[in-house]
Description:
The relative contact order is 0.24. It is built from two helices and five strands, in the order βααββββ. The protein is α+β, with helices and mostly antiparallel strands and 109 residues long. A five-stranded mixed β-sheet has the order 1-5-4-3-2. The longest helix has 25 residues, at 17-41. α1 crosses α2 (17-41). The protein has helices at 8-15, 17-41, and strands at 2-5, 55-56, 65-68, 74-79, 99-106. Helices cover 30% and strands 22% of the residues.
Amino acid sequence: MQIIFTTKKMQKACSSEREMLRIYGDSCSKKLKQRLAELEAAENMGMIPPFARCHPLTGELNGKYAVDLSHPYRLIFEPDCEELPLKADGGLDLNKVTSIIIKDITDYH
Length: 109
């Protein structure tokens, strides 16, 4: 899957091991590297491994998705589509989303 970052700062935090360690610490950095590799290896959102626990968010984060990192942190992203591919029931067709935008790494609880 194609991964886009909202800011250069976010891109640097996710692509430089030194920055990851400085900002998120050892445990979260290891999980972040793993999740980014899994997202990049997946052909589409439907192929994100179940153990990553990809789930849609609600409330202020409606329309965005998250995968687990090191508790309590989550990697938050949204589909990068001009028009969201929807199923007949109105839900997002994850198998048609081939690009995502990384929005944040945070504890939203």
